[in-house]
Amino acid sequence: MAWQGIEGHDAVAADFARSHARGRVAGTYLFIGPAGVGKASFARQLAKAVTCRAPRAGLVACDSCASCVQAEAGSHPDIEIVRKPEDRATIPLEALIGDADHRLREGLCWRLLLRPVLGGRRVAIILDADHLSEEAANCLLKTLEEPPPDALIILVGTALERQLPTIRSRCQIVRFQPLSADAVVRVLSSEEPSATGDPGRLEACAAAAAGSLARARLLLDDELVAFRSRVFRTLGETPLRGVELARDVIAFVEAAGKEAPPRRARLRVALDFAVEFFRAALRRDAAGTLPTDAVLAAAVHDWRGDAERADGALAATLDALDAIERNANLTTLVDAWTAILEEPRLAHST
Ligand SMILES: [Zn+2]
């Protein structure tokens, strides 16, 4: 049975259970792992379990005490979750230390100093730690260095290199691995009972998800699967038809409607596909291996670029991903990105 219903991270849960049994759960943790593998869910369940008034062996929440009920409802007075708002590039400073009129009299760092309302622990979860500005990180340092007694602070990020060294050095690092294809299939089957009638589809979906549940959920959508195949095919062609790629990506983004957050989310999905393609191309060049996903494997096999081109294209795509939040005009961003991919240096075969 998966710990607290979370697939794939039982070993991490067992470590926490051992620490908890010895009264040695630390004050600050930094969760690191790819997007969509369940780090945030794990942090929420850990918060529930450590604040539970009657936890069972293995740090399993009782699910019936007042603390568990409020944690489950998202209304626990001692559990606070901070994340980057959709329309901001970073976590706002005021979320951590209060706005200009209430500096250090509001915000997460201040609230951590208060006595727990329910008498257990106070837990702060900082999602999107990749997007902590240096200023915000500096405000956190003292809290991370000397967390108030009984406080538990969990930062959640995707890669260690994206965290500031000052933050890294003050936290215990906990690594989360991509989920196995089996685990992804199990979760999808439980969430989408209708999909279980087609096990082949679920398996293909899990293979294409690269261990990310978030991506697997997206890939249950036929329109998205078709778009993904087109993106891979276009990227695999030489020369690359940048205008066509841009048109397809922009149409995919426009289908989200006029609101910025869903448009940005769609562009992120499209660029993630390109990241996947160029990473697979690099692996082909370095190790001669092709991905297990058949559509991606065929496109990468046909690609006539080399490692240097894949590297340049990957860097340009990661830059474009970073620029999504800063750019009001996504069309311009897509045009600029595809123009770079088209550059002879990147796209032509030797
Ligand atoms: Zn409980």
Describe the structure.
The protein has 350 residues and is of the alpha/beta class. Helix 6 (134-145) links the parallel strand 3 and strand 4 (151-157). It starts with 9 loop residues before the first helix and ends with a helix. 53% of the residues lie in helices and 7% in strands. The chain is globular. The protein is built from 17 helices and 5 strands. It has 2 domains: 3-175, P-loop containing nucleotide triphosphate hydrolases (Rossmann fold, 3-Layer(aba) Sandwich); 221-347, no CATH class. It has a 5-stranded parallel β-sheet, covered by helices on one side. Helix 8 crosses helix 9 (199-208).
How are the SSEs ordered, and which strands pair?
Blueprint: H1 10-21, E1 28-32, H2 39-51, H3 66-73, E2 79-82, H4 93-97, H5 108-111, E3 122-126, H6 134-145, E4 151-157, H7 165-168, E5 172-175, H8 181-191, H9 199-208, H10 213-218, H11 222-236, H12 242-254, H13 260-287, H14 294-302, H15 307-323, H16 330-342, H17 344-347
Parallel strand pairs: 1-4, 1-5, 2-3, 3-4
Helix pairs in contact: 2-3, 8-9, 11-12, 11-13, 11-14, 12-13, 12-16, 13-14, 13-15, 15-16
Bound molecules: zinc ion.
The site of zinc ion has 8 residues, from helix 3.
